[in-house]
Specification:
binds iron/sulfur cluster; alpha+beta; Alpha-Beta Plaits; 12 strands
Length: 341
């Protein structure tokens, strides 16, 4: 089987359909209110939704190094630790003046604002009328070859045998932050109060069965997502939708495969309408430049988009399409439970 690490029984995985993301941040809040409200973790977003093209969160993470130098997974690539400003700060607004002091100024950040995690949402890319942007939700990828694990000199980070979830052992961690430097996705965070590292835990208590009768739940980000864009399951469950999307149809792709960590979060790449002339006529050019999508998802993105388009056309003409049925599932978080198979 592809992408299940040695010594791991089954690998949890998630597929996110970027065509459904509306950037509402419900997943971000579901995660934050569950896991990162305590002292020292206020700035952390184990789940974030960033706007692309854009700097992302933390700012410039795609150019911050980390990962592996080759697919051999023997030479780690050194990386950088983002500074506090790269994570952005909460802005203070002039609410008080407007609400209580009769100011007729527009609502604005009090001390000016130059950057924040979703700053790029207001900028987009391209020239009107062909401007574009899309949303990219991100969690830890629970990689098959996690460079964060390799980076830790105390073996505080580890990959669980039963499901491949990557965790930080809080008793072993000494807060050296090699893991922050080593993760090319910058999905490990340093807690400034506990002085230890923290990260997405794939909501393992929920998938292990925390309900009163031991019911299992999908990770909170998947369960709470209004458009239900996240599929959760085991990658190696050949009857499951994740296996079909990743391995059979090859339409779900990892983000930045060149980092060589082999992520287990996969994305259905975004479609975009064709470009228009100033007169409103369609021209046969994608609004989201294909080269940009290749930079994010690798060269396989062309074939993935072609496959989806082909299946979409078939379904429109009345033919059965298993792929379209999976992609159009209305409630995947409800349907797919992480039961050991
Ligand atoms: Fe480690 Fe980063 Fe991969 Fe998560 S995304 S397993 S933190 S290397």
């Amino acid at each position: 089987l592809i992408n299940v690490a040695d010594g791991v029984d089954h690998q949890v995985a998630m597929v996110m359909d970027l065509n459904k993301c509306i950037g509402c941040q419900t997943c971000t809040i579901a995660c934050k209110s569950l896991w990162t409200e305590d002292g020292g973790s206020e700035y952390m977003y184990w789940n974030n939704v960033e706007t692309k093209p854009g700097e992302g969160y933390p700012r410039g993470w795609e150019e911050s190094g980390g990962g592996w130098q080759s697919g051999e997974h023997t030479d780690r690539q050194t990386g950088e630790i983002p500074d506090r400003e790269d994570y952005g700060r909460a802005w203070e607004f002039n609410h008080e003046e407007i609400m209580y002091e009769g100011s007729d100024e527009p609502l604005r950040p009090r001390d000016g604002a130059e950057w924040g995690p979703n700053w790029d949402e207001d900028e987009g890319a391209g020239e009107y009328p062909n401007s574009y942007y899309f949303y990219l939700p991100r969690i830890c990828n629970h990689c098959t070859h996690p460079s964060c694990v390799e980076a830790c000199p105390r073996s505080a980070l580890y990959k669980r045998e039963e499901d491949g979830i990557v965790l930080v052992d809080q008793d072993r961690c000494r807060g050296y932050r090699y893991c922050v430097e080593g993760c090319p996705y910058k999905k490990v965070y340093y807690n400034t109060v506990s002085k230890k590292s923290e990260k997405c835990i794939f909501c393992y208590p929920r998938i292990e069965g925390e309900g009163p009768d031991g019911e299992t739940f999908a990770p909170a980000c998947a369960e709470e997502c209004p458009p239900q864009l996240r599929l959760v399951g085991f990658l190696d469950d050949e009857d499951g939708p994740i296996y079909k999307l990743v391995e059979e149809y090859e339409v779900a792709l990892p983000l930045h495969p060149e980092f060589q960590t082999q992520p287990n979060v996969y994305y259905i790449p975004p479609f975009a309408p064709p470009q228009h002339t100033d007169e409103g006529e369609s021209v046969d050019v994608d609004r989201i430049p294909r080269q940009y999508l290749r930079e994010l998802f690798g060269d396989r993105v062309d074939e993935a988009l072609d496959t989806i388009e082909r299946e979409r056309q078939r379904a429109r003409q009345g033919a059965d399409s298993e792929l379209m049925e999976i992609l159009q599932d209305k409630n995947p978080a409800e349907q797919y439970r992480l039961e050991v198979f």
